[in-house]
Design goal:
single chain, alpha+beta, five-stranded mixed beta barrel, about 35% helix
């Protein structure tokens, strides 16, 4: 499958949601095309390294638009996207309008793991974050018993650097991700 790529300075993981303000003409056109054809696109995190003119990671998330609406400012579109699957990007090409396209390959899904009791405090942190008005507006249904979801939501919502977030996202092991998040939270507190 060949899809449009939308680099962001934020990460969205499977089953996660993020609100986007689209104002650049190239991305307005991309979103309109995705809506018209009921086609997903890929959100990927901006990378500090620029390789071959491309400054984003090649592991991202295929997303679908779940809500949209114009704002009071003409030419700005507000959308909410939801993560469907982690994907790898290859055969990257930049279109004439500046939008990147890539062949995508769905990564192997992480197996379900019930959230281990040792990470109960992380669940409490996530529950506190979920009370924030911005997070509540996204209408996410978080399964706190699913270690994947707890780790993904914390990866999205905690104030970590982009490289840290990408490393956590790419781990592919929910228990290891939770362990690393617990360590990073300890470092933040100290």
């Amino acid at each position: 499958m060949n899809l449009s790529v939308f680099p962001l300075n934020a990460i969205v993981c499977p089953k996660g949601r993020i609100s986007l303000r689209i104002f650049e003409p190239r991305y307005l056109d991309m979103v309109r095309a995705c809506l018209r054809h009921e086609e997903p696109f890929v959100v990927t995190l901006v990378s500090p390294q620029k390789i071959k003119g491309q400054a984003f990671y090649t592991t991202g998330t295929m997303v679908k638009i779940v809500d949209f609406g114009e704002t009071s400012q003409q030419g700005i579109l507000n959308i909410v996207v939801e993560g469907m699957a982690q994907v790898g990007l290859s055969n990257l090409s930049r279109q004439e309008d500046g939008v990147w396209k890539a062949d995508i390959t769905e990564k192997m899904k992480e197996p379900y793991l019930s959230t281990p009791e040792e990470f109960d405090e992380l669940c409490l942190v996530l529950k506190a974050l979920a009370k924030h008005p911005y997070v509540q507006e996204l209408n996410m249904d978080i399964d706190y018993d699913d270690a994947r979801e707890v780790g993904w939501r914390l990866t999205e919502l905690l104030p970590l650097g982009n490289e840290q977030k990408q490393c956590l996202y790419e781990l592919g092991n929910s228990e290891l991700r939770l362990s690393k998040i617990a360590d990073q939270l300890s470092d933040l507190v100290e």
